[in-house]
Design goal:
With 127 residues, the protein is α+β, with helices and mostly antiparallel strands. It has a single domain, classed as Riboflavin kinase-like (Elongation Factor Tu (Ef-tu), domain 3). Helices cover 26% and strands 32% of the residues. It has a six-stranded antiparallel β-barrel with strand order 1-2-6-5-4-7. A hairpin with an 8-residue loop joins strand 5 and strand 6. The protein is globular, with a radius of gyration of 13 Å.
Length: 127
């Protein structure tokens, strides 16, 4: 499924989350890459919200938490038809339903020279 949306600034929590060895190791095991310590936050167009809610609810791919870490669901995805990564759906989040967090092993803002408001395409698969 293809999604279109606009890049937005996050809360800075993705850096902490993705710097944690527990998540780095589990993401590497499940997704096949060690994540860059930060997420690319994307506000998707309203037409995709129902599909995102359905995927979050029905998707069974997850990294289980422990006493110190929360659980997170994920869907493998591709950004701009070229960068493989994943969309994370943490069980605990402050993001709205129309905001997704894309991760990869690269700094995506730098790679694509992205700024808030820039439009991007995400293709979700394997869910």
């Amino acid at each position: 499924m293809d999604l279109n949306g606009k890049v937005t600034s996050g809360y800075g929590k993705g850096c902490v989350f993705l710097s944690d060895e527990y998540y780095k190791e589990n993401i590497n095991q499940e997704c096949g890459f060690t994540p860059y310590p930060g997420t690319l936050n994307i506000v998707v167009d309203d037409e995709y919200i129902d599909n995102i809610i359905k995927i979050k609810k029905e998707n069974e791919k997850r990294i289980d938490g422990d006493e110190n870490h929360g659980s997170v669901k994920f869907v493998k995805a591709i950004l701009e038809d070229s960068v493989h990564g994943a969309i994370l759906f943490p069980d605990k989040t402050t993001h709205k339903e129309n905001e997704i967090e894309f991760i990869s092993e690269e700094n995506l803002r730098a790679k694509f020279d992205l700024e808030d408001g820039d439009e991007v395409k995400v293709t979700m698969y394997d869910f």
